[in-house]
């Protein structure tokens, strides 16, 4: 029972994976600014993992969808004063970009929830306006997260490359992420996730080795304005 948009995205993923000889990545449905009913409809179509940018918005939808057995990922910037709530509300936090967050998340993770899955957000294009650690700092940050096991599980890296028109430049940013991921994964056996690629470039990300893509618009349509 697929919704047409979910069906189309799954088809695009399978086509790209086949074309580029890569395993099909996991699909994270980005539901920011979409109502709980839209999440419920994709969930009925078989989609399980959902990404949200704001802690409070996510908590409101989680309250409405409590028994749906969904997996929630935080993909928006995490402020230190929200870390404790995030460690309880989410299954994954994809935006750990500084060491200061690590003890805050670990201390607040409930014992009975199992480890909080963590991705390190890397500012791969060194954009001043963007969050994420510098690529050269990812190694040290990965060690800090790994040391917080078993409260935290270091699962991999996440990036939002600069939205440049030039597809070759975007592909090159994805490729640098893949190289960094492979380098760190040698030292950290728990690393299995490279989260990159959105609605308009996920095929490119799959070509370059993404294992998880984050798709909003292509699944839900245009987002309503913030309000
Ligand atoms: C909004 C968002 C997405 C999804 O973007 P679309 O272009 O709608 O697919 C993916 N990742 C992050 C971090 C986002 O904030």
TrEMBL record:
GO molecular function per UniProt: pyridoxal phosphate binding
Q: Which domain of life is it from?
A: Bacteria
Aminoacyl-tRNA synthetase listed as a keyword: no
Chain ranges of the Alanine racemase N-terminal domain:
6-224
Matches recorded under Pfam families: Ala_racemase_N (PF01168)
Functional description taken from the UniProt entry: Pyridoxal 5'-phosphate (PLP)-binding protein, which is involved in PLP homeostasis.
Please name the SUPFAM superfamilies in this protein's record.
PLP-binding barrel
The UniProt similarity line reads:
Belongs to the pyridoxal phosphate-binding protein YggS/PROSC family.
* Annotated PANTHER family: PROLINE SYNTHETASE CO-TRANSCRIBED BACTERIAL HOMOLOG PROTEIN, PYRIDOXAL PHOSPHATE HOMEOSTASIS PROTEIN
UniProt protein name: Pyridoxal phosphate homeostasis protein
Task: List, separated by semicolons, the cofactors it needs.
Answer: pyridoxal 5'-phosphate
InterPro entries in the record, alphabetically?
A: Ala_racemase_N (IPR001608), PLP-binding_barrel (IPR029066), PyrdxlP_homeostasis (IPR011078)
UniProt keyword terms in alphabetical order: Pyridoxal phosphate
Question: Where N6-(pyridoxal phosphate)lysine occurs, residue numbers?
Answer: 32
- For whether the record's keyword set contains tRNA-binding, the answer is no
